[in-house]
Amino acid sequence: MTRPKTQSDEQVLEAAYRLMHADGPEALTFERLAQACGLSGSTLVQRFKNKALLKQRTLLYAWDGLDRKTEQAAASVPRSPAGAVELLVALSRGYGDIESYAEGLLVLREDLRDPALRARGAAWKAQLSRALAACFANIPRIPEDIGLLMAAHWQGALLWWSFGPDDMELTAYVERSLRRFVTAVTMPARNL
């Protein structure tokens, strides 16, 4: 008879993700995860087979969480340019301080190295782009790919914030930058 699991895979993957995000992807070992979640290393190996699969499952779990967060945020904002800003500001919460953001970039590196994780990133890009584009549906003369343009601007704003994190709190910086972006794309074009 098999013993019942004392922790679900989701609980273990959450602990693994916290470990990766706090100390970098190389910190994720069966030994460190065993210490973090209270299960034995051999139990973790039985569940996840090897370090590469553990890392992949952890990051797929993180993508699942980002998909849910994006769906919830998109459903809660008005379908307007201001709603698009609100959606991206909501997704910016949780990045933390500059150290946390920098560690997150190391985790992103792992997503880029693995084809399955890159595919998840591409799927999220499409999901987010559609949600943002829906916020501009009733605005005339908006670029066809406004959702992707705005998402790209948001990612750029996050990166530029990281070079001067003490100048302004992250979500305030992102919101200001996105409002300027919306003003620029919704202003009537002037003859040059």
TrEMBL record:
It comes from the Bacteria. The keyword Transcription applies. GO terms for molecular function: DNA binding. It holds the Pfam family TetR_N. Residues 29-48 bind DNA. Signal peptide: none annotated. Residues 6-66 form the HTH tetR-type domain. Keywords: DNA-binding, Transcription, Transcription regulation. This is TetR/AcrR family transcriptional regulator.
